[in-house]
Amino acid sequence: MSIAESSESTSADTRVSPAATGLRRGGARRRHARRRAAAERSIPVRRLLSRPAEVTTDWIVPGDPIFSHLLATLSAVFPNGEDFFVASVRRHRDAVADDPSLKAQVKGFIGQEAMHGRAHRALNTRLAELGYHTDRADRVIARLCDLILRSRPRRLAIAVTAAAEHYTGLLGESALDHEPTRRILFGQESIEPLICWHALEELEHKNVAFDVMESAGGGYPIRVAGFVVTTGVLAGYVGIEWGRAVFEDRRRITAEHRRRFSSNFARQRLVSWWFLRKSLAFLRPGFHPDDTHTDDLVREWRARLADVAVATKASTAGEAARSPATERRERVTKQSCGRGPAGRAWKGAPDRAGSGTGPPPAGRGRREG
Fold first, then answer.
1. Strands, DSSP E only, in the chain?
2. In whole angstroms, what separates CA 325 from the centre of its chain?
3. Among 38, 167, 218, 318, which has the minimal tally of Cβ within 10 Å of its Cβ?
4. Is the distance from CB of 43 to CB of 78 less than 8 angstroms?
């Protein structure tokens, strides 16, 4: 399926007015003027050699059920979130028809996000077997994303996607550039390759949704609206679900678990003032995702992950990996706008001896509901 649709249709319903064309070209000129020429623009699609069944420990952050529930919640919301991102970008594929570079990036973006959703769905199935409420979070985030796609103005969904991609880009930067965060929160051998592969690709395509938003005529007010919705609705739900999961497990959380959480909290970046400060940069009028230079980080982790992620064709991945949820969201878009092996260590991986992983504590089984 082509990303771009012809803009030369003679139909009165699809003809683009001169004013709209000028607005689009003006947005494209602004975007090109602000792009950093040295920014890495290659967006390859890879397939992770993932084996989520190898996750056997009760707490995915060793000895820390509180952060374990946060990571499980994040993984749970990713698949439907990725489908939402793809649907939002596809909605504005006509806006990038005259920009071959961005059109190619959109193709890579779609392929990468499809693969992320597939990998996290497999992990979430395993986490549900271990007792995490991934099914519940998956259902709720799907409803929230569908609601945003139905909302007006039409550009709101792509603005939400741009803001969410800013958040996930910061998550990726935290995981790859800050070793304490990576070792504390993502250090389990069966999970770390997936997280680092996902983080790398978030940095590779961090500009795409933002540039599509600008190409579609989204200015500063819609960008702020997208950030508010992303923070208040999507990130807000993650916080609520995290708190709920911890509360439901409160009888299993010991004083030693709380001490471990306090120690981990003080050393990681995922929930920190650093993350908050970086997040708020999205609201700066002249902001662009390329303001943070991550090219060296991307090159480093491409080499380190070369043995655990296999490249594939972006066009094949982007289309073949479409899930039923993606197709459902595309129907929502048409209705609303009238348009039709995981544990294998990579190069330079840190030694995890004494990481604390082991058999799950006795007495913890799968929770119902």
1. 45-48, 309-312
2. 16
3. 38
4. no
- H helix runs in 189-307, sequence order: 192-204, 208-215, 220-229, 236-248, 255-267, 273-280, 295-304
Q: How far is CA 230 from CA 50, 172, 242, in A?
A: 29, 17, 17
Rounded to two decimals, what is the model's pTM?
A: 0.78
DSSP 8-state symbol, 152: S
pLDDT in tens, 119-167: 999 999 999 999 999 999 999 999 999 999 999 999 999 999 999 999 9
**C-alpha closest to that of 302 among 52, 99, 123, 42:** 42
Q: Please list, residue by residue across 84-119, b when 16 or more beta carbons sit within 10 angstroms of its beta carbon and e when fewer do.
A: bbbbbbbbbbbbbbebeebbbbbbbbbbbbbbbbbb
Which residue matches tokens 């929930």? 271
State the Cα–Cα distance between residues 308 and 310, nearest whole angstrom: 7
What is the distance in angstroms between the CA of the first residue and the CA of the last residue of the chain?
Answer: 39
Neighbours of 249 (CB within 10 A): 19
At 95, which amino acid appears? Answer: A
Residues 6+ apart with CB under 8 A from 90: 3, 110, 330, 333
* Residue 305 contacts residue 197 (beta carbons within 8 Å): yes
pLDDT digits (tens, 9 = 90+) for 181-223: 999 998 888 889 999 999 999 999 999 999 999 999 999 999 9
Using a 10 angstrom Cβ sphere, with 0-12 exposed, 13-18 middle and 19 or more buried, the burial of residue 83 is buried
